[in-house]
Design brief:
Blueprint: H1 2-8, H2 11-32, H3 35-39, H4 49-52, H5 58-77, E1 81-82, H6 88-93, E2 100-101, H7 105-118, H8 129-133, H9 140-149, E3 153-157, H10 161-172, E4 184-185, E5 197-200, E6 212-219, E7 230-235, H11 249-261, H12 266-293, H13 297-307, H14 314-323, H15 327-337
Parallel strand pairs: 3-5, 3-6, 4-5
Antiparallel strand pairs: 1-2, 6-7
Helix pairs in contact: 2-5, 9-11, 11-12, 12-13, 12-14
Length: 338
């Protein structure tokens, strides 16, 4: 009995936290609603618990907490020695009062060692662009950069959220800060206009489109402890995912910087990358202001691109970089030029 009590005692704070959070939410709702509103509760249709508590992530919260509780039970009771059914009668004749035997010290030590092994260590993260680029094949790196800078959606799928988020963070450095829409690891697909850099589990289906590029991050081991345990596969359809000809110049510039980063400090690469991105962000603003002031934009655009040292496919980058400016920022720029 004491052996069991020692192993379930640590579960009390876990249940207590769930109860505390739900009580606080319900008390806040109760205090915010007037007496007259509460009297009408019996007349109104029943509301789901998440809606009633105004707790949009309720199910995620409960899933995380109870998954952790079940995991703790698994690790704590793993070393139990189960008595075979055929020996129950024999144990009863010997006066045994339990169908379970307390594990010997050797098994208890094994349980502690296994529990320490099973503790969820943080997933490894990509800390620099070199680690990421070394896992890509052929022209995959240029294809990824191209899709990021022209505003297509890049979806990174993997079972380890921290690892996926680290890749999304690296990709976001190819863009000006105002072009990085909400991104992160979700459990359902979001369309391109809502999230251009998206992380998902491997099991989530992603639509097939030339404007969506999918990267699958996979590991041969269940709990990878090193970034070298991963492999990256770019899900490219030959008819949909092609490199533009000519390539947007910013793609070549970033690719060259990544090659240089293999023999230079990470900080040098980061500084140079910021300069390249800022240069094209400035060009996009110049392009936006010039087009707004042109009487015949179609005839003058070629001269404008020549001045900006940009090609036809660079326009995709220029339009995306300036298209993400807010309405207030656009008006501010127009007022300045006027």
């Amino acid at each position: 009995k004491q052996w069991y009590q020692r192993r379930v005692r640590h579960l009390q704070p876990m249940f207590g936290e769930v109860i505390r959070v739900l009580c606080e939410k319900s008390q806040a709702i109760y205090d915010s609603e007037s007496q007259s509103v509460r009297q009408l509760d019996g007349l109104r249709p029943l509301r789901p618990l998440g809606t009633l508590l105004k707790f949009s992530d309720l199910h995620t919260f409960l899933h995380q907490k109870f998954s952790r509780i079940l995991y703790s039970l698994e690790t704590q009771f793993l070393p139990l020695t189960i008595v075979p059914p055929g020996k129950l009668d024999e144990m009863a004749r010997q006066g045994s009062q339990s169908c379970f035997c307390q594990p010997p010290e050797s098994q208890d030590s094994y349980a502690r060692e296994r529990a320490e092994t099973l503790v969820e260590a943080p997933s490894p993260k990509f800390t620099n662009i070199t680690e990421f680029s070394d896992m890509l094949k052929g022209s995959d790196l240029k294809l990824i950069i191209q899709n990021v800078v022209i505003g297509n959606q890049v979806v990174v799928r993997g079972q380890h959220p921290a690892t996926v988020d680290s890749i999304l963070t690296l990709l976001s450095t190819f863009l000006p800060h105002h072009c990085v829409l909400n991104f992160g690891y979700l459990h359902h697909y979001e369309p391109c206009y809502a999230c251009r850099l998206l992380g998902l589990p491997l099991s989530v289906h992603v639509p097939t489109s030339g404007q969506i590029l999918v990267l699958d991050v996979m590991s041969a081991v269940e709990r990878p402890r090193d970034i070298k345990s991963f492999g990256i596969e770019v899900r490219r359809c030959p008819d949909l995912h092609k490199l533009l000809v000519p390539l947007p110049k910013i793609v070549d510039e970033i690719t060259k910087l990544i090659d240089i980063s293999k023999s230079h400090e990470t900080e040098t690469y980061n500084t140079a990358l910021k300069a390249v991105v800022q240069n094209w962000a400035s060009k996009s603003i110049s392009y936006f202001l010039a087009v707004k002031s042109m009487i015949d934009a179609s005839s003058a655009e070629a001269k404008l691109l020549n001045i900006l040292q940009a090609d036809e496919n660079d326009v995709l980058v220029l339009k995306f970089f300036k298209g993400s400016l807010t309405h207030h920022e656009k008006n501010k720029l127009l007022n300045e030029v006027q």
